Amino acid sequence: MRESIEPPLSLYVHLPWCISKCPYCDFNSHTAGNSAPKERYLKAVKIDLKLEAQRAAGRSLMSVFIGGGTPNFFSNSEIEQLIDLIAGEFSLQPDIEITMEVNPGTVEHGCMRNYATAGVNRLSLGAQSFNVESLRKLGRIHGPNEIYSSYEKAMAAGFDSINLDIMFALPGQNIDMAFRDVEQLVALEPAHISYYQLTLEPNTVFHNNPPADIPNGEESFIIQQQCHALMAANGYEQYEISAFAKFGFRCRHNLNYWTFGDYLAAGAGAHGKFTDNEGKIWRYTKPRHPLSYIEQVERRCIDNMEREVPIADIGFEFMLNALRLPEGFTASDYISRTGLSLDPLREGLELAQAKGMIEPIDRSGWRPTAFGLRFLNDLTAIFLV
After folding, report:
1. What Rg value do the Cα atoms of the chain yield, rounded?
2. What is the mean pLDDT of residues 301-309?
3. Average pLDDT over all residues of the chain
4. Which spans in 57-127 are helix H?
5. Dihedral of CA 369/374/377/382: which sign?
6. What's the average model confidence in pLDDT over 118-141?
7. In the prediction, which pLDDT does 328 show?
8. What is the residue range of 34's domain?
9. Last residue of a domain, one of 257, 277, 304
10. Does some domain include residue 281?
11. Exposed / middle / buried, residue 308 (Cβ in 10 Å: 0-12, 13-18, 19+)
């Protein structure tokens, strides 16, 4: 019997333009410079948000994430308008987390205070590396000085919840270089760190023309182990495969993804997941290209490409997210987020445990082992039926 469920609800807003496209990036980002129809796009997003508020039907938002692209490609006043509209159209929880991504290479003087005044209470800075040559190879438009300057401006504006993105296994990077990156990172003492390995994603420049000097698998694993240990020694807890936080500063928005919560989507290419009143789970995606998105919104005829998630797929989708968490999940977590019995997963759980990839938690749940986290794709594949 399927139970009626109502998971926590978040909102993602996508602002798609960048000054330049990085060769490793597979996000829905576009370069348009001064020709980007920002005003027209923002009007479309406002209409889209009103439609998404109808979908929410009074359910309150626990978090908002403004991502891109480069959201600070838009002006301070445009960001403020966006947040004001969200506050006016949606019910917001009193302690709502509102995150905005910021590119260190495009931070204007005084904008950090404006973001805080507008309601942003968490920033995510795309640092990627502190090494000048690594940043050049990654196609970033900023240098180490811009990282430090952006971080200092954010701190001066009163932000205490700041994430820094850092990548490893970069072209030409050795173990010492990667370790030095993390040394410089933890010296800043950000509240949160996203630390992830460079991957060659399809439809990227790096995928079509792979750099010859990327560290091999063994070198990458050594980098990962040593740098994880350095972050742990400096007070950062790993609570997701690529996320580290000081106490009290876990990213609530991303945790809602990983624990199979619901999230609304506005903006070109944005993805959403929603549970209806009957307990059915739906996924949907907005038109990917900004102009197609704008035109469809203006006609009030958006092809959201909605699809119901088949019951047979829900268990795998839950596990695909939950197994990213070192703390794992409990049976009650699974039941409360899916409305389903855990029974169909038990064979996979027994097999994964026999392979040493998960371990039980006090008879009420399971968590991935270090071995399981290292070979996460193989672990999740066990539950793909």
Report:
1. 21
2. 93
3. 93
4. 76-89, 111-118
5. negative
6. 94
7. 96
8. 9-257
9. 257
10. no
11. exposed
